Structure to design on (256 residues):
């Protein structure tokens, strides 16, 4: 890399999908980028904001199929920055919430590459605003916890189930469509009532948004029958009981 000019990498959260929810800072960085390295969860509406002159590199991952391994993504970012390019690493939601932004930052730091985080609205916040179901509500939930429903390399979900099975806390599950049956079973086994309401929201804040309201005991079967397209977010807790009265207009509504 001798003789090359160092560029900079912007680790940007694209939000849940609605381009109007993109931050001003993120939009400015997109418009000034030489190259955009993006994930599959970045909506087409967001990608439409990338200037036509800007190079685009698709490094999207799908369950059990990573066409570009994480190590290769790291190498791409370092190489592009070493060429003096202004690189946007574009991720759905927020880069620091299940977005591997900090892992990529570690590699950039080791390589001596300058980088900057630009936060995005995470899917849980987008789902709350879109559906009208709050993440916390007086008398229903005093806190909220975000968990991943999928482990790297399909490892076992070794979560602290006893701690998670609290009716006083809203539980938000990211990347859980494949394992929601196991998650529900474990939570029930550790004390959560089978009738606790669950809301699944697919492609939140986009024109493709779909919703399904079920219970812990039925969510696995209902989600399979509904065949919601990824990405799907799950909200588990008493706050979901507010859905029928708080629901904002949806393009598609699905009920258990």
């Amino acid at each position: 890399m001798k003789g090359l000019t160092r560029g900079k990498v912007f680790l940007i959260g694209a939000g849940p999908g609605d381009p109007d929810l993109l931050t001003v800072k993120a939009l400015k960085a997109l418009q000034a980028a030489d190259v955009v390295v993006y994930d599959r969860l970045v909506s087409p509406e967001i990608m439409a904001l990338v200037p036509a002159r800007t190079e685009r590199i698709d490094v999207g991952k799908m369950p059990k199929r990573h066409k570009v391994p994480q190590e290769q993504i790291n190498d791409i970012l370092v190489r592009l920055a070493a060429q003096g390019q202004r690189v946007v690493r574009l991720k759905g939601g927020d880069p620091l919430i299940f977005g591997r932004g900090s892992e990529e930052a570690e590699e950039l730091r080791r390589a001596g590459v300058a980088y900057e985080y630009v936060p995005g609205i995470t899917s849980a916040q987008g789902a709350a605003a879109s559906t009208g179901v709050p993440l916390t509500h007086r008398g229903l939930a005093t806190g909220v916890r975000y968990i991943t429903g999928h482990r790297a390399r399909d490892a076992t979900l070794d979560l602290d189930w006893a701690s998670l099975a609290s009716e006083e806390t809203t539980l938000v599950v990211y990347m859980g469509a494949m394992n929601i049956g196991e998650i529900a079973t474990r939570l029930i086994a550790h004390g959560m009532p089978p009738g606790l309401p669950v809301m699944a929201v697919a492609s939140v804040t986009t024109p493709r948004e779909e919703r399904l309201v079920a219970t812990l005991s039925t969510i696995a079967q209902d989600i399979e029958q509904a065949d919601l397209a990824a990405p799907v977010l799950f909200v588990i807790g008493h706050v979901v009981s507010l859905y029928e009265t708080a629901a904002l207009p949806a393009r598609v509504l699905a009920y258990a």
